[in-house]
Amino acid sequence: MSSYNTSLWKMNRSHCPAYFDRISCWPPTETGIRRIIPCPVNIFPTANPNVYASLLCKNESRWEEKSHYELCIGCTTIDPLDGNKTDLFLIPSSFLITRKYFMTCANGLSVIFLIIGIFILLGNSRLRQYSRNILHVNIFLVFLIRSITQLIAEIFMDKGYFTHNVFQRTDICNRTTIYFKHHLVDCKLFVVFINYISSSVVHWFVFCEALYLYRLLRAKASKDQIRWYIITGWLAPLCLTIITYTTRFLLKKDLHSCWFEPSIYDWILHGPNVVLQIVIN
């Protein structure tokens, strides 16, 4: 009798006991083994006969909390018995958090130092006399605005959307779907402004500054010419931005989204900048 109790005790330590989960009966299973059984036809009459339900016997001789009937109801999941299949690549959450902190700190420092640089150039009467410093102030200003918008995006946006416009739902297959509220005017306007500033950075740094230095070598630039540089630097990207997103709106492309995703219409905005970089270089 004692030998029987000993063998029973060893079996209990190395097996999960028989278990009923209110749908199926699971036989005793060795620890570390995922038991599979056919889908019960009385519960899932339309289930594919080639699929199965599964339940893992954990190392502490206890069944996992939830039986897996996803395949029985038509969900597509990675086969747990197929060793040749690899997990999908997912970016670790720790990396995303570190990136968020790094981008926030970097843009915050940029805002501080750019403000200091602008005050130095504008606060000194001698420095204000030089035309090139007026261009530098505008370049600092466009970089400052871009850093501020990126800072706002890092803090208040998630997956290209403001957090109050995003909500998630999990279906019976344990698949999480992200939904967006239809009222996305604020998000659209912010993304349009981000792209306008990004285009302005390239236009100012590559075109206006380079053209001014080139003309400075050929002939002395006057303050009247500086005025046209400033007008061109701010107005040209604005015109391209208006054309780009007016076209996107009139053609009813991605009206349900926030326009954060890349589109073929972005070439209207960024194409001239690419051409300018090639020509000037």
TrEMBL record:
<dbReference type="InterPro" id="IPR036445">
    <property type="entry name" value="GPCR_2_extracell_dom_sf"/>
</dbReference>
<keyword id="KW-0325">Glycoprotein</keyword>
<dbReference type="InterPro" id="IPR017983">
    <property type="entry name" value="GPCR_2_secretin-like_CS"/>
</dbReference>
<dbReference type="InterPro" id="IPR000832">
    <property type="entry name" value="GPCR_2_secretin-like"/>
</dbReference>
<feature type="domain" description="G-protein coupled receptors family 2 profile 1">
    <location>
        <begin position="16"/>
        <end position="79"/>
    </location>
</feature>
<dbReference type="InterPro" id="IPR017981">
    <property type="entry name" value="GPCR_2-like_7TM"/>
</dbReference>
<keyword id="KW-0472">Membrane</keyword>
<feature type="transmembrane region" description="Helical">
    <location>
        <begin position="189"/>
        <end position="214"/>
    </location>
</feature>
<keyword id="KW-0807">Transducer</keyword>
<keyword id="KW-0675">Receptor</keyword>
<dbReference type="GO" id="GO:0005886">
    <property type="term" value="C:plasma membrane"/>
</dbReference>
<keyword id="KW-0812">Transmembrane</keyword>
<keyword id="KW-1133">Transmembrane helix</keyword>
<dbReference type="GO" id="GO:0007188">
    <property type="term" value="P:adenylate cyclase-modulating G protein-coupled receptor signaling pathway"/>
</dbReference>
<feature type="transmembrane region" description="Helical">
    <location>
        <begin position="101"/>
        <end position="122"/>
    </location>
</feature>
<feature type="domain" description="G-protein coupled receptors family 2 profile 2">
    <location>
        <begin position="99"/>
        <end position="281"/>
    </location>
</feature>
<keyword id="KW-1003">Cell membrane</keyword>
<protein>
    <recommendedName>
        <fullName>Secretin receptor</fullName>
    </recommendedName>
</protein>
<dbReference type="Pfam" id="PF02793">
    <property type="entry name" value="HRM"/>
</dbReference>
<keyword id="KW-0297">G-protein coupled receptor</keyword>
<dbReference type="GO" id="GO:0008528">
    <property type="term" value="F:G protein-coupled peptide receptor activity"/>
</dbReference>
<dbReference type="InterPro" id="IPR001879">
    <property type="entry name" value="GPCR_2_extracellular_dom"/>
</dbReference>
<comment type="similarity">
    <text>Belongs to the G-protein coupled receptor 2 family.</text>
</comment>
<dbReference type="InterPro" id="IPR050332">
    <property type="entry name" value="GPCR_2"/>
</dbReference>
<dbReference type="Pfam" id="PF00002">
    <property type="entry name" value="7tm_2"/>
</dbReference>
<feature type="transmembrane region" description="Helical">
    <location>
        <begin position="134"/>
        <end position="153"/>
    </location>
</feature>
<dbReference type="GO" id="GO:0007166">
    <property type="term" value="P:cell surface receptor signaling pathway"/>
</dbReference>
<feature type="transmembrane region" description="Helical">
    <location>
        <begin position="226"/>
        <end position="245"/>
    </location>
</feature>
